[in-house]
Structure formats: C-alpha cells, structure tokens
Design a protein that fits this description.
With 256 residues, the protein is an alpha/beta fold. It contains 7 helices and 13 strands. The chain folds into 2 domains: 166 residues, Spore Coat Polysaccharide Biosynthesis Protein SpsA, Chain A, CATH 3.90.550.10; 80 residues, no CATH class.
Length: 256
C-alpha cells in the first residue's frame, strides 16, 4: 500500500465560488489535490492552498486528458475525483473509508444528488446520475477518445462496484449558467459526431429535439418534477437542436 491510501482530486478553473467548501468536504482523505488548468483568472489557487489543498497546475486540453494527467500526477493508491461544485457528505465519506478497508472492485460508481436552479432534481435524467469517481489509480484510465462525458476504462476488464450514498452536486445556478454550459457540451459533442462521420440532416433539427423531450419528460419521468421537470425537458430538447446546429457549422467550416 502506498503512503497515501486515498487522494481526493478536484479539477478546477475559476472556481473561487466553490473551491473552499469542496476542499473542506474532502479533508478526511489522506491528501486533497486541486488540479488547476493553469489559467484561472480569479483567486482559486490562493483559496485552495489556504483551505489545505496541494495545487498542481496543468494546461487543459480536454476533460479526459486532464483526468488522466491527474491520475499520473498523484501518488495515492486510490483516487476520488470530485468536481469543484460537488460536496462529499459525511455519509459518503464514511462509506468510502469503510469500502477501502476491504475493496472488492477497482472502481466504484457513486450516485449524485443534483441541485439545478437550487432545486433537488429527482427525475428528468438527473438521478441517480451514477459517476465512476472512486478509482484504484494504477488500474484505471480515461478513454482519450471521449473528450467530454468521460468514460473510465478499468484494467484487465476489472468490474466496478456501486456505492449507496450520493455526492451532492450544485449544478447550474441559473438559466444563463445552464445555457452556457450546455452549449459547451454541445460543441464538444458536435465535434465528436463529425469525427465519427455523422453529418447534420434536416430531420435531425426536428426529430432529435422531440425524442429528447419525450425521453426526458416521459421515459425519465420529468413530469414528476413538475414545472421544473418540464422546463428542463424543454431546455435539453433545445440542446439537441443546438448540437446539430453546431455540427452543421463544423461541416461548413471544414468545407465538407
């Protein structure tokens, strides 16, 4: 066993609003590392150091490469990835500590409670929202082809377990934040689709948003979130339209 059994890792850029509280929720780990993109323009780095974290600065290319670089940069036997706008409740911290006394897997899925516009969202696709975040460092890596919505690959076909207690995610504080973030994801997704040979067709601008809305609102029971679920379903339908619009723009810019 390495000197540090568990290192909590936080990827960060301009996270002064969240970084101290996030670090505080991880101080039970053997070490907390803030893996900063190298170009924050706020006081994220100073606040992180003051809160007790070690800061490593590494230029950001995409999310998969950043997480892989973090895995190589720390020396814990296990890594728990936590985003800056997430918190680790005491119940999850206790479960992680207990799990690592006798781990049965080399990676673990963790559910998330997502607070969107300040409201706990239990349907519409945001729960249980499993994330594979607890990893045996030397036996895990992120698929370099998945530059967003990262995919963990466990060595030798290793199986993943599932924890019961959720992370808490303070996701999308307002409509503007939601739209900016989803546009960023749509841009990444459009590039991935283009590289896979997909081209935007007229029907995509109609059928894909409709399918997304039906999936969110009916299949994933967004209606049980009331007006909140309806609004989120409409917004995610709009995001599908935007994804294919950006795919169209990628094609035009590439001259194909």
């Amino acid at each position: 066993m390495s000197e540090k059994q568990l290192v909590g890792v936080i990827l960060a850029k301009n996270e002064a609003e969240h970084i101290e509280a996030c670090i505080e929720s991880l101080l039970w780990a053997d070490e907390v590392v803030v893996f900063e993109s190298g170009n924050s323009t706020d006081n994220t780095v100073k606040l992180a150091e003051k809160a007790g974290a070690r800061v490593i600065q590494h230029p950001f290319e995409d999310f998969a490469k950043q997480r892989n670089a973090a895995l190589r940069a720390v020396d814990g036997e296990w890594v728990l990835f936590v985003d800056a706008d997430e918190r680790v409740p005491d119940t999850l911290a206790s479960e992680v500590r207990e799990t690592l006394k006798n781990p049965q897997h080399v990676g673990y899925w963790i559910p998330r409670h997502n607070y969107i516009f300040g409201k706990l969202t239990r349907h519409t696709g945001w729960y249980p929202d499993y994330q594979m975040r607890l990893l045996k460092r030397e036996l895990a890596q992120y698929d370099p082809e998945r530059k967003v919505h990262e995919l963990v690959i466990l060595a030798d076909g290793g199986e993943a377990g599932t924890l019961e207690n959720p992370l808490v995610h303070y996701n999308y504080r307002d409509l503007g934040h939601f739209i900016r973030t989803q546009r960023m994801y749509a841009k990444f997704d459009a590039r991935i689709l283009y590289e896979e040979g997909v081209r935007a067709k007229l029907r995509n601008f109609i059928l894909q948003p409709i399918r997304q809305f039906k999936w969110r609102y009916f299949t994933l029971k967004g209606y049980r979130d009331g007006w909140h679920g309806l609004k989120l379903s409409v917004l995610m339908a709009w995001n599908e339209f935007d994804k294919y619009w950006q795919l169209r723009q990628v094609g035009r810019n590439s001259g194909k």
